[in-house]
Amino acid sequence: MSRTEQFDRDGFLVLPGFLSAELVARLEPEVDRWVDDGLRAQSIACCVDPETYGLPPLLELELAAHGELITYLPLLELLVELMGPEFVFHHQHSDRQAPGIAGKAWHHDCEQNSDADPDLLMVHALHYLGGLDDTVGGLAVLPGSHREQAAKTARAHQGTAELPGEVLVDRLPPGSTVLLHSALFHTRRPAPDGPGRPRYMVDASYCQTGARWRPVKPYWRHMLHRARELELDGGQWPELFAERHFTEYGEPDGGNRAWK
Fold first, then answer.
1. Cα 87 to Cα 2, 28, 55, 73, 243, distances in angstroms
2. What is the pLDDT of residues 59-93, one digit of tens each?
3. For residue 175, is it within any domain?
4. Are 200 and 129 in contact (CB under 8 A)?
5. Is residue 183, in this structure, part of any structural domain at all?
6. Strands 138-141 and 122-128: what pairing?
7. Quick one: how many helices (H) and strands (E) in the chain?
8. Largest CB tally within 10 Å, which of 51, 111, 177, 258?
9. Contact 133, 193 (CB under 8 A)
10. Angle CA(197)–CA(14)–CA(125) in degrees, nearest 5?
11. Which residues pair with 88 in a beta bridge?
């Protein structure tokens, strides 16, 4: 079975040790700076109250290794397999989750597109810089659930409980990536033995072109503009940071029907 067939069937791919050790070594101190200097908190404030806080002082993609991660060639080549040659960057998040952090209830992360077309792919790449083990907890996914049309929180009442048919990903080496269909239900499980070590995680999402997608950050135009200024696409991916693939921020339901 090809990776494309597996992804279509299950809604996820597990890629152990996917990132180069050199890239991981540069990403981790950037994540520390992002958290310790309050940059993550400021970026969240700019999303929660954009009228008060305006633009964040720094974007994740303006950190050199984070910018490189968005266009990491093995990742983009895999996205071509799954989505074809034209797709657009949606957003990037970076965090160092504290030891003993609570789990996150079952949810999916798919945004709507202007055609309400479930056949257009949105994909999340979850990069676990330090890997996964009993000291940081795991990721549980529900294979096949990406074929449903369901609200993001449709299974939130289940908390982080084990569900029939789930797959638990809890043993990965440093620099591993889990690629999710964004409509796949998943949950973050806490470390089973209590507080351990911090979990370094960077995630980024990408959308197949063919309709306009709803942005999740009010400063999305600034984000794409900075990516173009920094020439993160290397001149090889002309659609990767193109604004025309998005609706306006805050437009009800992204200008289309809501998920059932």
1. 21, 27, 25, 14, 12
2. 999 999 999 999 999 999 999 999 999 999 999 99
3. yes
4. yes
5. yes
6. unpaired
7. 7, 9
8. 177
9. no
10. 75
11. 207
CB 126 within 8 A of CB 94: no
234: three-class secondary structure by DSSP: coil
* Number of domains within the chain: 1
pLDDT tens, 127-136? 999 999 988 9
Torsion angle of alpha carbons 216, 222, 226, 229, nearest 10°?
130
Q: Is 171 inside any structural domain?
A: yes
Range of the domain at 146: 3-255
Q: How far apart are CA 130 and CA 138, in angstroms?
A: 12
Q: What is the CATH number of the domain that holds 207?
A: 2.60.120.620
Give residues with Cβ within 8 angstroms of 238, minimum separation 6: none
Angle formed by the axes of helices 3-10 and 73-83, nearest 10°:
70
Whether the per-residue pLDDT at 25 is higher than 90: the answer is yes
CB 163 within 8 A of CB 106: yes
Instruction: Strands of the chain (E only): list them.
Output: 12-15, 87-97, 104-107, 122-128, 138-141, 167-169, 176-181, 186-189, 199-208
- For residue 83, count CB atoms less than 10 angstroms from its CB and return exposed for 0-12, middle for 13-18, buried for 19 or more: buried
> In angstroms, rounded to a whole number, what is the distance separating the alpha carbons of residues 243 and 249?
12
Q: For the stretch 174-189, what's the b/e string if a residue is b when 16 or more beta carbons lie within 10 angstroms of its beta carbon? A: bbbbbbbbbbbbbbbb
Gap between the Cα atoms of 79 and 204, Å rounded = 12
Helix (H, G, I), strand (E, B) or coil at 125: strand
Over residues 213-235, the pLDDT tens digits come to 999 999 999 999 999 999 999 98
DSSP letter for each residue of 136-190: TBEEEE-TTGGGS---TTTTGGGTT---TT-EEE--B-TTEEEEEETTS-EEEEP
Q: Is residue 260 part of a domain?
A: no
